Amino acid sequence: MLKKQLVLWLVLLLALGACEKLSKKEWTIYSNGNQVTALAVEASDSQGEYLWAATSGGVVRWNKGTGEYVKYTPLDGLASNRVACIAIESDGTKWFGTVSGVSRLQDEEWRTFTVEDGLASNMVQTIAIGIDGSKWFGTYGSGVSLLDSKTNSFTTYTTADGLASNDVRCIAIDKKGVKWFGTSRGVSRFDGSSWKSYTTTDGLASNQVLCMAIDTDGVVWCGTTGGVSRFDGTNWVTYTTSDGLASDTVWSIAADKDGRKWFGTYRGVSRFESHPGLSAQGPNWTTYTTADGLVHNDVRSIVVDSEGNIWFGT
Predict the structure, then answer these.
(1) Of 4, 111, 177, 264, which sits most exposed with the smallest number of CB within 10 A?
(2) Strand order from edge to edge, sheet including 58-63
(3) What is d(CA 60, CA 128) in angstroms, rounded to the nearest whole number?
(4) pLDDT at residue 294, as a whole number
(5) pTM (two decimals)
(6) From CA 103, how far away is CA 83, in angstroms rounded?
(7) Is residue 29 part of a domain?
(8) Which among 146, 124, 43 is positioned nearest to 89, based on CA atoms?
(9) Cβ(53)–Cβ(312) under 8 Å?
(10) How high is the pLDDT of residue 15?
């Protein structure tokens, strides 16, 4: 299954200590035409660090050290070639959300879970691993399912339980274990016993939430169709194109080792830097597009590896 050519669209931005505008020499492009829908980094081992990419044509694993590629498809055990999300556990177990269920790759063995096993829907849009090892699967139209790994049974939460919408696009889990769900009707917070939802009425940029991330300070960042909103536990603050964001439709969010936030949009990537002495506009925002070396302006996924390199899937 080793491939000489990469079977996905990828852009590598080399780790930088400075914040200057990047030249094209600082970008490395990998491409052969498949759209990348999700990226994940697997911790280094004796064989090196691996980058995993979900694409419209299956899943690709790339060894950053050796440059070897492996592609996985339904012929290997993957539920479907149409993969929306990836999550990797601390023990190396991989989870792939597809349009035909969720597939697990554990010790080189595949298993797929579907509605027949208790999963809310076979259309899995997002996966998150809890600090306790719990697995959460957000689905299209059927809520979010929690997997009990000991019994391989599912518990599903829907609007009847307190979820803002059954269309769950993204999940983030904070250091206290609180779950945050981005949906088509706002953000829902679940602490294990009670639910609370936030919408535009509370200050969210748009109820159409596409991506989420939680930074080291515990601030929740939400990418929406109306800009980026941040929530510090008390107040919501929104940033839009008027502040310097490339587009108000934000597909992906990641934070680098220096605390800078990166936002993937359909008009390029915007980087936000905030520290005392900087205003909320101007120098805080830098946008990168194809003019700077980005392979495509529609950036659907972002991940930061252990060396601080930033990878963009387009």
Answers:
(1) 4
(2) 2-3, 69-72, 58-63, 48-55, 36-45
(3) 20
(4) 87
(5) 0.90
(6) 10
(7) no
(8) 43
(9) no
(10) 42
